[in-house]
Specification:
Elements lengths: L15 H37 L10 H4 L1 E2 L5 E2 L2 H12 L3 H10 L15 H38 L5 H10 L8 H10 L3 H17 L1 H8 L5 H14 L3
Antiparallel strand pairs: 1-2
Length: about 240
């Protein structure tokens, strides 16, 4: 061997089992991105429908975001896997990240997914995490005050007992300004099953996408059963 020749130690060759393990890990990573991309799209479209007041939005593929040729013949890439990778790299809660982008928009307008990659989008998420629990605490206090405004006259003037007056107040969606989450939590904690059941699905939907904020703001007021349901749903959605 000449002095100019070098010996490069590449280590032992990979055995088939190691190759299979690496390929399996790569497939899992791609599946993770694909699954999270589908979740991110679903959350975005759900929020967009609420903000636009249109339940049809996103029912059909939108080439600008979902990929493919638009009406002018321009081809677009699917943005959701790219956004999923961005969220994974940030290490943030994807549902809260998406919701934060909508929170500071004017009602009726929806943010563009292409803007979710910049520093302003990250700043919105940080701000949302700081401000939203405080806002939820205020919402609870105001809703409780509104409910008491209906309960007290029923008790003092009509002679109803507290539970009957509370059921009436929580069922009155005109005079009592309160979210389904508030109605469900208070009804459940007070053992008013019919009112709780009426508000359960909407409360669960709100809670799933804002669980961390609600947990910080409302604490033990949130029934254990709702926590369990939300944790199971989130574990399925975020199983990446």
């Amino acid at each position: 061997m000449s002095e100019r020749e070098r010996i490069i130690d590449l280590g032992p060759p990979l055995v088939p089992a190691e190759i299979d393990a690496r390929e399996a890990a790569a497939r899992r990573a791609e599946e993770t991105v694909a699954d999270l991309g589908r979740l991110v799209r679903w959350v975005y479209m759900s929020l967009a429908r609420a903000y636009k007041g249109s339940m049809e939005y996103g029912q059909q593929p939108i080439p600008q975001w979902d990929g493919g040729a638009d009406q002018w013949g321009k081809n677009h890439n699917n943005i959701w896997p790219r956004l999923a990778r961005h969220i994974l790299e940030l290490g943030v809660d994807p549902t809260m990240y998406m919701r934060a982008q909508f929170t500071y928009m004017t009602r009726g307008r929806v943010p563009l997914p292409s803007t979710f990659f910049n520093d302003m989008a990250v700043a919105k998420y940080r701000r949302y995490c700081e401000e939203w629990p405080q806002s939820l605490r205020r919402q609870y206090d105001l809703a409780l005050l509104s409910a008491r405004g209906q309960i007290e006259p029923c008790v003092t003037s009509l002679g109803w007992d507290y539970r009957r007056a509370l059921r009436y107040a929580l069922s009155n969606k005109v005079m009592v300004q309160a979210s389904a989450m508030f109605r469900y939590c208070l009804a459940t904690n007070e053992g008013i099953a019919d009112v709780a059941a009426e508000n359960h699905d909407q409360a669960l939907g709100d809670y799933v996408f804002q669980k961390n904020a609600y947990d910080e703001a409302w604490g033990e007021r949130i029934p254990a059963e709702l926590r369990r349901e939300a944790e199971e749903i989130r574990a399925t959605m975020l199983s990446y």
